[in-house]
Amino acid sequence: MKFRLIMKIVGVKNVLRLVVSINKHGFNLLSLLDFVKHSPLTDAYIEDDSVKLSYKELYEESVVLAHYLETKYNLKAKSKVAIISSNSVAMVKTLFAVSSLGADIVLLNPNQKKDYYTSIFEKSTFLLIIGENKNEWQDVNLPFFNENEIIATSVLKRKAKRKSGSIIIFSSGTKGKPKKEKRKLAVAKYINPVIDIIQKLNLIATKTVLISVPVFHGYGLAALFLSLFLKKKIRLTRKFDAKETLQILEQENINCWIVVPLMIQKVYAIRNLQTSALKSIISGGDILPVRVVKNIHETSNIAIYNMYGTSETGVCIIATNDDLKKYPNTIGKSILGVKMKVKDTKGKSINNEDIGQLVVKCEWASDDKKDDFYTTGDLVSKNEEGYYFYRGRIDDLIVLGGENIYPNEIESMIYRNSKVKWVKARGSRENGMVGIHLDLLVEDRISFNEMEFQNWMTQEMPKYMIPKSIKVVDYEPDLKLM
Predict the structure, then answer these.
(1) Residue 118 near residue 84 (C-beta atoms within 8 A)
(2) Do 447 and 364 touch, CB atoms closer than 8 A?
(3) Which of 121, 264, 269, 376 has the fewest CB atoms within 10 Å, counting from its CB?
(4) What parts of the sequence cross the membrane (predicted)?
């Protein structure tokens, strides 16, 4: 069954070509580039704000860079390399070069504070740091390679296969502390999710992809690999800027935009998209507000998709455009190869639509999670049709007057108010009394009247859900990934 689906999606010639590439380079990322390198520049390339390479050029430059890194820094199988960079062609090139040597890659967010990296470097032995600016790492006693360094071209014929290394991604963790999730580049275990994701997101029809989500996150990394595998035109930007993104979407013939929800909100806060080229928006990494879904459906023919997953399990639930038309607040249904259960506080499975904790088992989970059900810490419910609905984090649950109150439910209600741009609900304690606090970002602070807003909540919300305190903030929240 799997084989037939792969043949249908990829084609017999491409499957054979992939086998040849793996036989040539082994199970590492360079095999992927070798597989797609014959794609013509008119049909497939990777581009950022200053560089544009065909897949063949990306492959050749990655091979040259691999030889340089191997020679100068003695990189080899199981060497540990930190890549600390944002979305760019240079960053992608280093990713493939290091992988081809069988080294273990640690992808780190370049926007973190120094003490974040210190704790990571102290716990592991790194051979090399790769990034954009050497001056930022002068106090770290490790060799540094500038990803933008131009390497002299040389003729290379790499024959030796390299054992697969690992890619390690550091998630923020439930307590905000860095937590590593390690995945080996094993092809077989990704067949089920790849097939289902391609079909559910209708990716075959897409030609040009804008990846706004950071590649150092698992979601962005998966988007990059899948786009390369399907031979798409890939557009990257180092930093997200709403005005620049709007311009790219409307002027560069982008068919598919891969994002986190807040990026959609920031772009649409400028104006609704005015482009016939954009066919789909794929959202993930955070909760997709209902009003964002409804606005896209009401103002355009753009298909919107929602992907749910964790750093530990990767993508495991998808809501298609049709799913979101039916239930705008659903996170979707489980994909192929995933086993899921909703459990109560005693660990017993819930079979009705009651709220419980989601546990997941999938063969492509990070190495220490793949053999058991992983407890996500997310509260969900599941209806009789198999749709899942996100209800919040278990550690965010507010117990007030005997009622279990889920912040996500409060936020969903607050988002119905057209004056609210962003909202975050949380439990609070004052003078020993438990209550609900809201942080609000409003469309126009000058005209915002808190008394009118309080009256609106009284009419629209159950009494026990009405917050005791409200803070109107002046800043937009940081882009967040689950």
Answers:
(1) no
(2) no
(3) 269
(4) 209-230
The answer to whether 343 touches 350, Cβ cutoff 8 Å, is yes
pLDDT digits (tens, 9 = 90+) for 19-29: 666 666 666 78
Q: Are 216 and 238 in contact (CB under 8 A)?
A: no
Output DSSP code: residue 230. T
Residue for token pair 């790492």 = 137
Report the chain's C-alpha Rg in angstroms: 23
Q: What average pLDDT does the structure give for the chain?
A: 85
pLDDT beyond 90 at 268: yes
- Name the token pair of 338: 């995933």
CA nearest to 363, candidates 336, 343, 342, 387: 336
Average confidence (pLDDT) over 343-364:
85
Task: Copy the structure tokens of residue 421.
Answer: 């741009």
**Please, what is the angle between helix 261-270 and helix 290-299, to 10°?**
50
How many CB atoms lie under 10 A from the CB of residue 368? 12
- Cα–Cα distance, 455 to 476 (Å, whole number): 25
- For strands 104-108 and 166-171, give the pairing: parallel
**Alpha helix stretches (DSSP H) within 142-182:** none
Grade residue 333 by pLDDT with cuts at 50, 70 and 90.
very high
Bridge partners of residue 130, in order along the sequence: 83, 145
- Cβ contacts of residue 432 below 8 Å, gap of 6+? none
How far apart CA 359 and CA 168 sit, in angstroms, is 22
Q: What's the Cα-to-Cα distance from 189 to each of 95, 193, 338, rounded to whole Å?
A: 21, 8, 11
Residue with more model confidence, 314 or 84: 84
Q: Characterize 443-478 residue by residue with b for buried, 16 or more Cβ atoms within 10 angstroms of its Cβ, and e for exposed.
A: eeeeeeeeeebeeebeeebeeebbbeeeeeeeeeee
Say if residue 180 is exposed, middle or buried (CB neighbours under 10 Å; 0-12, 13-18, 19+): middle
C-beta pairs of 32-41 under 8 Å, 24+ apart in sequence: 32/96, 32/225, 32/228, 32/229, 33/58, 33/59, 33/62, 33/96, 33/228, 34/59, 35/229, 36/228, 36/229, 36/231, 39/231
Strands (E), 191-275: 208-211, 233-236, 256-259
User: What residue type is assigned to position 282 of the chain?
Assistant: I
Report the half-sphere exposure of 423 (CA within 13 A, side-chain side). Answer: 23
pTM (predicted TM-score): 0.86
Residues in CB range of 68: below 8 A, 6 or more apart: 151
| DSSP structure class, residue 478 | P
Other beta carbons within 10 angstroms of residue 396's beta carbon come to 17
What element of type H or E holds 81? Answer: strand 80-84
424 half-sphere exposure, CB direction, 13 A CA radius: 15
How far apart CA 426 and CA 403 sit, in angstroms, is: 15
